[in-house]
Write a structure and sequence with these properties.
The chain is an alpha/beta fold. 32% of the residues lie in helices and 14% in strands.
């Protein structure tokens, strides 16, 4: 077993730290990874490997020779949704190319139903042995090129080990040597990365991959699809919960109080106050959504509200059926998290609450939204991420959220009483 200092390679998962601190030893690690492997333990929903096509010289595959392209997708739900314009651009500019996507297990359903994707592969690699296994599986598909949307060293290491000839990604996380084409990253004058919207970030990388010298304006609209199974699941939830459907005077409002970080969560009791007031003003049905790990947050919202609140977790909501649910609701009120982007992709009005995360990272081209930031006076040269106290999400008030909700509901829905 190779060792980096005193720690076994097979037990290490922080690849970028290893590269930063132990650059002379990386080549020994790569030698280990490039050895033949006989295991393929990671789960998959992929189709059978394609027969081997003619290959170009390693690292020099010309664009016109690419027939099988892999897109290494981001890990987070919101980022996956924000990558759909990039997938659309690849589909439109590379007709006839077989497009495959690699996603971590549990999130592949987000892009299920996408007509542009030939093949969905799932896998996750945290240790060097898992990297080797996943790379072996990818190598069997004989991809001509890979576009790496994540910035991680890990993603580049997997594709390097898989011997994919053309590997294109942003030159970040000390991974430049593992890429065959390195896209420069925009930085702020004072240091650190500039807050480029993720949609533009991915589209820019596609332009770089396609060798567009003067990129034209691309369609930034988010897009998701639903399957018949997902629609049937949403029908079941609607019937079980007794929710109104297509009734203009009885809107359904979805609250999403969770987030992957505690400091991105608006207080549960404030969501409860919003639920009470909107139910009163608009005769609205209130539903709440969150992951199984956020059940305590959902219960806190329901307990703090005085009106009936439907907990979607208790009705078996899944990530895939949430897409179909998003199509049916009249308004979504959410923290800065994945369901926000799903709502936008489904053309559903959404109020988003931003605490210590800068909204410029996730700017969306969508007219039916209101973004509420904790500190709107923050200088444009600063980012909210660098000011956790000044930009604490608790600075957002209930009246602010209610006003935003009314702005989006008012054009279509009459108020009942105040």
């Amino acid at each position: 077993m190779f060792r980096l200092g005193k720690q076994p390679v097979a037990e290490r998962s922080c690849f970028s730290t290893m590269v930063k601190n132990r650059k002379p030893q990386i080549f020994a690690v790569l030698t280990f990874l490039l050895q033949p492997t006989s295991s393929a333990r990671l789960m998959t929903v992929e189709t059978a490997p394609f027969p081997r096509p003619p290959r170009a010289v390693h690292g020099t595959t010309p664009m016109k020779s690419i027939s099988r392209l892999l897109v290494f997708m981001p890990s987070w739900v919101g980022d996956i949704v924000m990558a759909t314009p990039a997938l659309r651009l690849l589909h439109e500019t590379m007709p006839g190319v077989q497009l495959s996507c690699l996603l971590r297990p549990g999130v592949a359903s987000v892009i299920e139903g996408c007509p542009w994707i030939e093949n969905i592969i799932t896998g996750r690699a945290k240790t060097f042995s898992e990297v080797k296994d996943l790379a072996h599986r990818l190598h069997q598909h004989h991809f001509d090129a890979v576009l790496l949307l994540p910035n991680s060293f890990n993603s580049a290491l997997i594709c390097f080990t898989a011997r994919i000839p053309r590997r294109v990604g942003y030159n970040r996380d000390h991974r430049g040597l593992l890429l065959t084409k390195r896209c420069p990253v925009q930085k702020r004058p004072g240091g650190g990365y500039a807050p480029v919207p993720a949609v533009d970030y991915y589209l820019n990388l596609v332009d770089f991959f396609l060798d567009h010298k003067s990129p034209s304006q691309h369609n930034p609209a988010l897009q998701l699809w639903t399957t018949a199974r997902e629609e049937a699941e949403a029908d079941r939830i609607w019937q079980e919960a007794g929710l109104p459907q297509n009734q203009p005077d009885s809107p359904v409002i979805l609250l999403n109080p969770g987030a992957n970080r505690q400091d991105k969560r608006w207080p549960a009791e404030r969501f409860g106050l919003v639920a009470d007031q909107l139910a009163k003003e608009y005769n609205a049905s209130i539903i709440i959504n969150g992951s199984p790990a956020e059940q305590n947050v959902l219960l806190a919202v329901r307990d703090s509200a005085s009106v009936p609140v439907v907990n979607l977790q208790e009705h078996g909501i899944t990530l895939s059926s949430l897409k179909a649910v998003m199509k049916r609701v009249n308004l979504v009120i959410t923290n800065d998290t994945g369901p926000r982007h799903m709502a936008v992709a489904m053309n559903t009005p959404v109020v988003t609450l931003f605490g210590p995360t800068d909204p410029r990272w996730t700017t969306l081209a969508f007219s039916r939204q209101v973004e509420i930031v904790a500190d709107p006076t923050l200088d444009a040269a600063e980012t909210a991420d660098d000011h956790p106290e000044r930009c604490a999400i608790t600075r957002i008030t209930v009246p602010q959220v209610l006003d935003a909700a009314r702005e989006l509901l008012q054009p279509a829905l009459p108020q009942t009483s105040s």
